[in-house]
Amino acid sequence: MTGRLILVSNRLPVTVTVNEDDVVVSLSVGGVATGLSAVQNHFPNTLWVGWPGRYKGTSPEQDFKVADLLLAHNLVPVKLSKKEIDAYYHHFSNSILWPLFHYFIDRLPLDAEGWDLYSEVNKKFADAVCQVYQPGDMIWVHDIHLMLLPQLLRERHPTAKIGFFLHIPFPTSEIFRILPWREPILEGLLGADLIGFHTDSYLRHFSSSLTRILGLDIDFNRAFISGREIKLGAYPMGINARFFDDLKTKSSQSKKDRQLILAVDRLDYTKGIPNRLLAFEKLLESHPELRGQVTLMQIAVPSRMDNPSFEAVKRQVDEMVGRLNGLYGNVDHAPVHYINRAFSPDTLVEFFRSADCMMVTPLRDGMNLVAKEFVASRSDERGVLVLSEFAGSSSELGEALLVNPFDANGVGQTLYRALTMPDEEQAVRMRKLRKRVLTFDIFRWAETFLYDLEQVHEGHLQQTDLPENISPIDLGTRMKNANDLVIFLDYDGTMMPFHDLPELASPDAELLELLKNLAAKPRAEIHIVSGRAQETIGKWLGHLPLFIHAEHGLWSKPPASDQWKSLIDLDQTEWKKKVWSILEFYTLRTPGSLIEDKSFSIAWHYRMADPEFGLRQARELKFTLTSALSNTPLEVLQGSKVLEVRHSRVKKSAIVPAILKNKPDDVLTIAFGDDLTDEDLFAVIPVKGLTVHVGNTPSRAKYRLPDTSAVRQVLKIAAS
Ligand code: ADQ
Asked: What pTM does this model have?
C-alpha cells in the first residue's frame, strides 16, 4: 500500500464522556467495530472516520478537545445532531434498510422517512473524509449507513481509490426493488472501484439489481459506468482468530453435571432467538430423557432498544423463556439460562470453551462472526457448531451441522445429533473448521480486499481500452474549423436513443434539421452507416443530401438517388432458412425477443426481454449459431442487445477505403459509433482522424461522449 488507509464507518469504536471540564475517551467494541479495530491496528498509518456517539457538551472548545483526543488514536469524528441520528441511523438505516436487506418486509414502516437526512449525513461524511484525504490514500467505506458516500467522494476526487464493503446480506433484486430509493443507492455504491460482499450469492443479487434496475450489463463481475470499471467481489470476513485461540482461560471443558448448549447474539429479530427456543422445546419434548440433563444458555446483548421492533422481540423472548422454564424446569434446574448483558472477550471465550453445542441459528445474517469465534476458541477440538444455512458463514463453514432455523423440528433433531455426536466426529469436523477460520482471518480478509482495490485502481490508470472523455464543444469546434470533413455516423445509440421497439426509432425533427444543416456545410461529406435495413433507413433519411449505408455497409446509396448498390452477391435463401429456424426456437423461449429479417442478414433483438434472462439466452444462442455456422462465410455479431448473423465480408469498415480515396491530405475523418459493429469501422479510420465512442463501455475509439444528446451537440456546433 502506497498511501494511508482511511476507514469510514458509521460508528467509531469509542465512548466519549464529557464532564464539567474534563473529556474522557474510552475504546469500545461491537460487531463491525471489533473487526475494523483489528484492521486499524494491523496497518500502520490508518485513519478512521466515523461518528463518536452522543456526548454531553456542546461548546466548540469541548468539541475541539474531543477531536484532539480522538486524533491521538487516529480517529476522526463526524459530529451528528440528535435529529440527524434519529433520521439517518435509527429511522433510515435501522428501520428501513436493516429489515429490507434481511428480508423482513413485514417490519417496514408505512412512513418510509429519513432519506433527506440520510443523504445529508452522507455528505457530512464526505466533507470529513475530504478534509483528511491526500492523493494516494485508500478510502474504505463500510456498510449500509454510507451507501451514497462512494459516489460523493468520486465526484470530489475522480481518481481516488475507493472501496466499499457491505456487512449485511444484499437481498435478491425482487426484495431490493421495493426500496423507493433503489436507483440513487445503487448509483451511490457505484462510485467505488471495488464493492465487496461476504458471499457470492449477495454479489449475484447485487449484480442482478444493477442489471434490472439500472440496466447495466455485468460481465465477469465487472460493471462499467461513466467510462469507469467497477469490480464486484466476495470477501468473507474473518475474525482475529489467533486472539481467541491464544486466550488463556481458567477452565476448559471440565466434567459437568449437564450438557450445555450455548447461544450468543445481539438481541435482534434477525438472530432468530424465538425460533431457537422453540427448537430447544422440540428437543425436550421429543427426548424426555434429556430433561434436566441439558441447559440452553442464551446470552443476548440488548441493542437498538429504542426501536419498537427490537423491543417486541425482547418481550417475546422473555415470555418464551418463562414458559419453557415453567414447562420443563424444577427447583434445581431451569432449562433456559437467559442472560441479557455483554461480556468481555475473555469471559465469552470461557463460555465458548465450556459449550457442548453452539447454536448459531439466525434467520438471516450477513456473515455471523460468533460462529467463527466459537471455532477459534476450541483448540481442544471439541464442541459441535449448529449453524443456520441463512448465515453468510454457512457458505464457508460446511463442516458445521447446517440447519434451516424456520424448521423447529428439524433443528431439534439436529441438536440431538450434536449432543450425542462421538468425540472423534467432533474432532474431525472441528479440525477442518479451525483450519479455515485460523487461515482466513480478519487480516487476510483486509489484505485481500485492499490488494484487489489497488489492482482495480491500477487497472484504471493503465486502461487503454477506455476512451478519453472529450468535451462536445472542443470536438464540435475542431469539426467546424476543418477544411474538408468526412463524417461516418452510426444511427441507433449514436444519434438516436434506443427504443424498445426498433421500428419506432424514427428520426425526430431536431435530428433531421441537424443533419440537413451539417450536409449543407461546404466540403463536408456525411455517411450514415447503420445496421438497419435499406428500406427503413432509406425511408427515414433518404431524402437528405447524405450518403447512406444500410445493413452494415452491404447496401450503399449516394445523395439524391434511389439506386442502392450491393457490396457482395450472395444467395441467401439457404442459410437464412437454417438460421431462421434456430432464431425462432430461441424467440419462442425468450419472451420479449424478436427477429428482424434484413436482406442479407438476420438480427435477434432482446432489448424487451428480461435483462438477465435475455443476456443468458443471447450467450447460449451465440454459441449455438457459431457452431452451426462454423464452415460458412457467415458470422455472428453481438450488438447492443442484439445478435446479428451476416456475411463475414459485410462490415462497416469495408466501405471506408473507397470513400477516403482521392481525398485531400488535410481531410478530417471522424467516426461516431456506440456498439461492437462500430469497432471495425474505428479500426480503419486513418491515424490523423478521430474516433468517438458513445457510452460507457470499453472501445478502441480515442474519445468518448456520454450519450446521443452529446453527439447532437457536437454536430450542431460543427454545422454552425
Ligand atoms: P452483527 O449483527 O453485530 O454484525 P456478528 O457478526 O455476530 O453480528 O457480530 C457480533 C459481535 O458481537 C461478535 O464479535 C460477538 O462476539 C459480539 N457479541 C455478541 N454478543 C455479545 C455479548 N453478550 N457480549 C460481548 N460481545 C458480544 C454485522 C452483521 C453480521 C456480520 C458482521 C461483520 O450483521 O452478519 O458478520 O456485521 O461483518
From this structure: 0.81
